[in-house]
């Protein structure tokens, strides 16, 4: 059984090798001044993008979830907080 309008790996224990189940892929882009910046693009395999689950008060974080920790998906900032065992009070507000 597949979800309509999405590509999904039905074996949830084996996330996409490209995006790790987040739907986002990191790439580096060169700026006009010759520096490099990190950016994210959608998974080329067509996996649906996820957004951060990092708020402890139920509000959603507007950032893309680019890091997978256990069963959760977090933005880079909330990933650092959850890795250290802390909780965030608001959506990206305490970071």
Q: What are the secondary-structure elements, in order, as H or E? A: EEEEH
**Overall pLDDT confidence:** 74
Major beta sheet, strand line-up: 1-2
- Multimerization state: single chain
Structure explained in plain terms:
By secondary structure, the protein is mostly beta strands. The chain has a domain at 24-83. It has one helix spanning 76-83; strands at 24-30, 36-42, 67-69, 72-74. It has a two-stranded antiparallel sheet with strand order 1-2. A hairpin with a 2-residue loop joins strand 3 and strand 4 (72-74). The longest helix is centred in the C-terminal third of the chain and has 8 residues, at 76-83. The protein is globular, with a radius of gyration of 15 Å. It starts with 23 loop residues before the first strand and ends in a 12-residue tail after the last helix.
Short description:
The protein is mainly beta and 95 residues long. It has one helix spanning 76-83; strands at 24-30, 36-42, 67-69, 72-74.
């Amino acid at each position: 059984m597949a979800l309509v309008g999405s590509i999904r790996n039905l074996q949830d224990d084996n996330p996409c090798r490209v995006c790790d189940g987040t739907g986002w892929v990191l790439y580096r882009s060169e700026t006009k001044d010759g520096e490099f910046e990190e950016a994210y693009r959608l998974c080329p395999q067509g996996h649906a993008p996820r957004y951060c689950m990092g708020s402890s008060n139920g509000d959603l974080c507007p950032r893309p979830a680019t890091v997978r920790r256990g069963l959760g998906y977090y933005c880079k900032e909330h990933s650092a907080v959850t890795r250290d065992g802390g909780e965030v009070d608001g959506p990206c507000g305490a970071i």
